[in-house]
Each structure stands twice: as structure tokens, then as C-alpha cells.
């Protein structure tokens, strides 16, 4: 079976609900995964928008996710940290989820939620590590990747 990532809030290729945007409640959507590669010792999640006017914009990173987990509930980073999850600093400058907020009239943006299954328990990152550093540190340890793409547009 394939390693898959899904959300009860939106299907692959569909619109991310406004509550998960910065114009709404700005809470992270619930995420669920299954069929992770054997030997996964942790997971990392990175959310990026490659359609941003200045190039790829990074919205969220969570890492050192326990390998026994198969969900991240809605609002995972809205309050205190759960477990010992690491949080990358996004391109808004925040160490938590910040949802879609593309420029008005810029057209449809695609938000790539990438869940990486890793062969290490921790990425040993500084608490102020930016999202792109989380991705770079994770790449050599990837056993597999699952992706969910949501869309959002501000008119």
C-alpha cells in the first residue's frame, strides 16, 4: 500500500476551508496518514506554497513526530506544544502554523503538505530553525513521502 496523507477538512486538489487560513481562524487542518514505510523512526511535516509571487513561501513545519502517531489534530500548534514536537520558523517569522493568505487577485495558490517518514528519531534542530532548514535536514533521512495539496485564492 502507498504512504498517504489526507485531511477530513479538504480532499487532495480541493480548496482549504477559510477557517484554516490567516483570514479565518488560522488553525492547522487535521491530518491523517497511513501505510508509512517500515522502519520509520519519526515524521516531519512541511507546508509550502510554490505559487507565491516571491517564490516558494513556507507556512509550517513540525518535526520529531512520534512514529506511533498517524494523526495531527486540528489546531496542533494553536496552543502549548504537545509531546516534544519541533516547530520550524515559517516565512511569516512564526514557529507555528500560519495558513494561506496569498495576495488578493493573485490567482489560485497550491499548498503542498508533505509528510516525510524518517529513519531517525530526531533531527536535532535549533528551536529557531527555519522551515527550509527542517526540510534540508530531513532529506537525507527520508524513507518515504506522502503529499496532500490544497488550494486557496483571495479575490
Written account of the structure:
The protein has 155 residues and is mainly β. The protein has a single domain, classed as PEBP-like (Phosphatidylethanolamine-binding Protein). The radius of gyration is 14 Å and the shape is globular. The relative contact order is 0.27.
Give the radius of gyration.
14 Å
C-alpha termini separation: 39 Å
Identify low-pLDDT runs. Answer: none
Strand order of the largest sheet: 6-4-3-7-8
> What is the count of β-strands?
8
Q: Which class do the helix and strand fractions yield?
A: mainly beta
CATH topology assignment: Phosphatidylethanolamine-binding Protein
Which CATH architecture?
Alpha-Beta Complex
The main sheet comes to: 5 strands, antiparallel
Question: What gross morphology would you assign?
Answer: globular
Number of helices: 1
Number of domains: 1
How large a portion of the residues is in β-strands, by DSSP E? 25-35%
**SSE succession:** EEEEEEEHE
What is the helix content? under 10%
Give the helix/strand layout.
Layout: E1 4-6, E2 31-34, E3 42-49, E4 57-65, E5 71-72, E6 86-87, E7 109-118, H1 131-138, E8 142-152
In short:
With 155 residues, the protein is mainly beta.
List descriptors.
single chain, 155 residues, mainly beta, Phosphatidylethanolamine-binding Protein, five-stranded antiparallel β-sheet, three-stranded antiparallel β-sheet, 1 helix, 8 strands, YbhB_YbcL/LppC-like, PEBP-like_sf
Amino acid at each position: 500500500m502507498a504512504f498517504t496523507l489526507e485531511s477530513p477538512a479538504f480532499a487532495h486538489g480541493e480548496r482549504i476551508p477559510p477557517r484554516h487560513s490567516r483570514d479565518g481562524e488560522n488553525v492547522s487542518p487535521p491530518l491523517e496518514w497511513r501505510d508509512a514505510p517500515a522502519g520509520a523512526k519519526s515524521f516531519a511535516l512541511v507546508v509550502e506554497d510554490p505559487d507565491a509571487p516571491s517564490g516558494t513561501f513556507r507556512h509550517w513545519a513540525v518535526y520529531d513526530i512520534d512514529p506511533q502517531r498517524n494523526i495531527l489534530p486540528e489546531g496542533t500548534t494553536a496552543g502549548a506544544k504537545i509531546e516534544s514536537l519541533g516547530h520550524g520558523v515559517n516565512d511569516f517569522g512564526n514557529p507555528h502554523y500560519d495558513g494561506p493568505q496569498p495576495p488578493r487577485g493573485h490567482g489560485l495558490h497550491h499548498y503542498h503538505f508533505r509528510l516525510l517518514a524518517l529513519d531517525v528519531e530526531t533531527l536535532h534542530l535549533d528551536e529557531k530553525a527555519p522551515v527550509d532548514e527542517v526540510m534540508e535536514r530531513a532529506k537525507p533521512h527520508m524513507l518515504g513521502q506522502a503529499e496532500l495539496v490544497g488550494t486557496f485564492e483571495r479575490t
